[in-house]
User: Which sequence fits this backbone?
């Protein structure tokens, strides 16, 4: 006896199912729509993933070598912050191709308190004039001549991050390193297309005078880190705009120049930075760090290394620093007597002549 195989007859109206055919219960026309919908979803997610990967690749690391920056041109916006009159500035003499110019002074406060933040409206206008928006990859370029010079791009980096820009980097060694590498420069000035940037302030990285004063009164969980050379910390010298020499009560000192072995303007690799960080003072039980100096310049270097390169949590910058603090009459330590201050001023005058 011959056994015939059972034949399964699919209804003519059945559309392919979810695994490649139609969804059950759909007509042929409905099944076709279902397939097109599925393919559209797959294409959407593939494009979204590609877009994210492109954004990630365009976003620079916080610290770039000249070769790494060259490889990312022109996808990143380079901002040259070197000082000088417009017609005779270092920028006019030669800069990285595509760079726009925004000298460091345009990011700073008035002469009597250079570390004080400008108004949000002022910064918004400046950022818009440079063609920046929150997702714009930005690389900051200074001269790079010595450790002190690094404070300029670090402070501008901090300011942009505070304003809400998220993809920021500094050219390690600045134009000094770029020129040493023999990389191209141009004298062609660049004017950016203005943007419609809207700030979204990141208050987590800012320590105001009010906050610091409150921490001193109520909390023992904050490490106050003085980034100035030790003579400032000890009250032996002061910034011209400061009301008096000295430091914050309970502060510990860590000269920002210690991150730069050999005195160059180029930071070492992360392993060396981690080794240097082991020599930093530590406050028992400290849960946050407030970096300060005279005007938030040297302190920006300490903030940048600790927060952006070593990824220590809850590191803040006090932008006004000791000029702001001393002029407000807040309590200080390591303040010399009036006679000692007069004697120090006389010595400085003699040395100047």
Assistant:
């Amino acid at each position: 006896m011959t056994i015939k195989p059972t034949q399964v007859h699919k209804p003519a109206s059945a559309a392919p199912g979810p695994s490649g055919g139609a969804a059950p219960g759909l007509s042929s026309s409905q099944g076709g729509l279902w397939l097109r919908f599925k393919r559209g979803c797959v294409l959407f997610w593939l494009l979204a993933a590609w877009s994210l990967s492109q954004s990630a690749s365009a976003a620079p690391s916080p610290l770039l070598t000249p070769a790494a920056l060259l490889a990312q041109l022109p996808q990143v916006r380079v901002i040259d912050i070197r000082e000088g009159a417009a017609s005779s500035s270092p920028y006019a003499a030669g800069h990285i191709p595509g760079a726009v110019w925004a000298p460091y002074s345009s990011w700073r406060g008035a002469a009597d308190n250079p570390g004080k933040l400008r108004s949000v409206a002022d910064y918004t206008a400046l950022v818009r004039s440079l063609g920046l928006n929150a997702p714009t990859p930005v690389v900051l370029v200074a001269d790079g001549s010595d450790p002190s010079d690094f404070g300029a791009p670090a402070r501008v980096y901090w300011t942009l991050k505070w304003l809400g820009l998220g993809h920021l980097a500094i050219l390690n060694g600045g134009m000094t390193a770029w020129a040493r590498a023999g990389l191209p420069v141009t004298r062609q000035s660049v004017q950016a297309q203005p943007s419609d940037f809207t700030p979204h302030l990141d208050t987590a990285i800012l320590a105001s005078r009010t906050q610091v004063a409150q921490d001193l009164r109520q909390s023992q969980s904050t490490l106050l880190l003085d980034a100035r050379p030790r003579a400032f910390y000890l009250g032996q010298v002061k910034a011209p705009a400061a009301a008096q020499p000295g430091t914050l009560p309970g502060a510990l000192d860590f000269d920002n120049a210690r991150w730069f072995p050999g005195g160059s303007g180029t930071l070492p690799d992360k392993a060396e930075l981690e080794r240097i960080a082991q020599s930093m003072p530590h406050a028992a039980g400290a849960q946050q760090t407030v970096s300060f100096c005279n005007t938030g310049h040297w302190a920006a270097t300490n903030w940048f290394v600790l927060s952006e390169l070593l990824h220590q949590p809850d590191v803040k910058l006090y932008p006004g620093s000791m000029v702001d603090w001393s002029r407000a009459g807040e309590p200080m330590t390591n303040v010399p007597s009036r006679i000692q201050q007069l004697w120090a001023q006389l010595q400085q005058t003699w040395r100047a002549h």
User: Anything to note?
Assistant: The chain has two domains: 58-201, 205-337. The mean pLDDT is 86. The longest strand covers residues 222-226.
